[in-house]
Specification:
The chain is mainly beta and 226 residues long. 12% of the residues lie in helices and 56% in strands. The protein contains two helices and 15 strands.
Length: 226
Amino acid sequence: MKIRLNSALKVVALAAAMVAASGASAQSAGTWTAKVGMNKITPKVDSGDLSAPALPGTKADVKADTKPIFTIAYMITDNVSAELDLGVPYKHDLVGAGAIAGTGKLGSAEVLPPTAFIQYRFFQPNAMIRPYAGIGLTYAYFQKETGSGQMTALLNTGGSGETYKLDNKLTVSFQVGATWAFNERWFADVAVVKTPLKTTAHFTTGQTQEIKLNPLAVSLGIGYKF
């Protein structure tokens, strides 16, 4: 029984050594990586009041959306990397909050938020798990803003279809994440990004509304090292 146990322990130790060796990646200076995955953006909204004429406390909330994400990165040194996050536009629903909570969907908007990061990756290049932290710039480009019949009923009763426009913004983003190397080339990645973002909605009635979106993004992906 003891011999079998020793043999089993040796097999486990050998397997662990092989896994550790397979984590010996090319994630060092001069390495390019590409990653695809899914990213969920959840706005953490702090809405101002809609400007007059409007019911006091007329606020807004914005719903989450999930879309594919594509990332490329370059290792500048063994620990410092530059990363670019790209993807398709996210579509977020605008709903009533505050004094108009429960009124339902007021409209929707798409946002394309390309982001460039400078990251610090901890541990050695051949480590199986490498946590990282990054800081970068995000350009929030808003498009295809549309208003619903409910928005028209609230803001322009009896008038033509109401809509709005959001100001595009350049802002900073903060990132934490980690990679897990399956072998010399393939890895899994998880990342969390927080972006302080404030914009202004301009309605066709001439009213405006300041909205802090402050989105939190969580992504999971699979990557390849070149």
